[in-house]
């Protein structure tokens, strides 16, 4: 077991997370017998861009009907979207037990439990056989992973021969210092920002080649600016990413925005496929 795993899990822990979401849905007047993905959309995807960027990636990669693994699945929003809109058979894995419990309950709540499954586990010790998945998917995950080589090797191992790896990640630029707290860490102890070239070099070593990729920094800046302008001054009872980030939500998002604007970090999405 990685010595940092308990610290990372503790960082993301939110007691009674599912109950909190249910209570907020009640306050919003949502019929709990008829909850849709749209009703939980504001909290469902814990990354810049939300469901919109997830759909964009899925369409670019053409992953309809895929057997898909989401590493660092959070509370399961991307898996549910991919199951419902792209007919994917999805499995999510996360280091947060509370997230996994919540993800499974939310899938049952919106009627997608038959197409989604969420398990507790470690990204660098995936509990799956070789060649299991058509697609492996990560969004804002590797910043909490120190062993980038093992992370990349595990992704390659569980992909089948025709498989692809899709990512949407935050990378540093030449190891520049960023201000904390950030959405994935309160300080440097569990934050392992790296340059995208590091991940690229490992994947090349394991036979995966980067295809199309997109610099998502400018679009991320616009999204964060819009989100921050709409954020209430006081703690809100509404359903949003404040449920996952708590009282420091605004500080975390502001520091992320400033890091992007100052060129210390950047957002990038892309696809890796096996070398032909």
Label this structure with key terms.
276 residues; alpha/beta; Rossmann fold; 11 helices; 40% helix; 20% strand; globular
Oligomer: single chain
What's the alpha carbon Rg, rounded to whole Å? 18 Å
Give the DSSP E fraction (strand runs of 2 or more residues): 15-25%
- Classification by helices and strands: alpha/beta
Instruction: Provide the CATH superfamily.
Output: Vaccinia Virus protein VP39
Q: Give me the side-by-side strand order of the main sheet.
A: 3-2-1-4-5-7-6
Q: Which regions contain 5 or more consecutive residues with pLDDT less than 50?
A: none
Q: Major beta sheet, specifics?
A: 7 strands, mixed
Helix proportion:
25-40%
CATH fold-level assignment: Rossmann fold
Number of domains: 1
CATH class: Alpha Beta
Order of helices and strands: HHHHEHEHEEHEHEHHHE
Shape: globular
| Number of alpha- plus pi-helical segments | 11
β-strand number: 7
């Amino acid at each position: 077991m990685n010595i940092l795993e308990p610290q990372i899990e503790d960082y993301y822990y939110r007691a009674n997370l599912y109950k909190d979401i249910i209570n907020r849905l009640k306050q919003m007047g949502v019929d709990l017998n008829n909850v849709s993905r749209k009703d939980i959309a504001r909290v469902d995807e814990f990354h810049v861009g939300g469901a919109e960027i997830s759909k964009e990636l899925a369409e670019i990669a053409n992953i309809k009907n895929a057997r898909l693994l989401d590493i660092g699945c959070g509370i399961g929003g991307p898996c549910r979207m991919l199951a419902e809109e792209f007919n994917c058979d999805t499995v999510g894995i996360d280091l947060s037990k509370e997230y996994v419990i919540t993800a499974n309950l939310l899938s049952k709540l919106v009627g997608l439990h038959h197409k989604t499954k969420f398990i507790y586990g470690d990204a660098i010790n995936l509990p799956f056989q070789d060649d299991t998945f058509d697609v492996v998917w990560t969004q804002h995950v590797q910043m909490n992973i120190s062993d980038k080589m093992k992370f990349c090797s595990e992704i390659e191992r569980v992909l089948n021969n025709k498989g692809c790896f899709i990512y949407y990640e935050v990378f540093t630029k030449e190891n520049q210092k960023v201000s904390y707290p950030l959405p994935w860490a309160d300080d440097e102890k569990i934050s392992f920002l790296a340059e995208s070239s590091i991940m690229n070099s490992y994947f090349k070593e394991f036979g995966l080649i980067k295809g199309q990729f997109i610099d998502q920094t400018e679009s991320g800046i616009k999204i964060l600016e819009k989100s921050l302008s709409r954020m209430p001054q006081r703690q809100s009872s509404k359903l949003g990413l404040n449920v996952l980030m708590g009282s420091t939500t605004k500080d975390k998002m502001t520091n992320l925005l400033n890091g992007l604007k100052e060129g210390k970090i950047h957002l990038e999405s892309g696809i890796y496929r096996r070398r032909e």
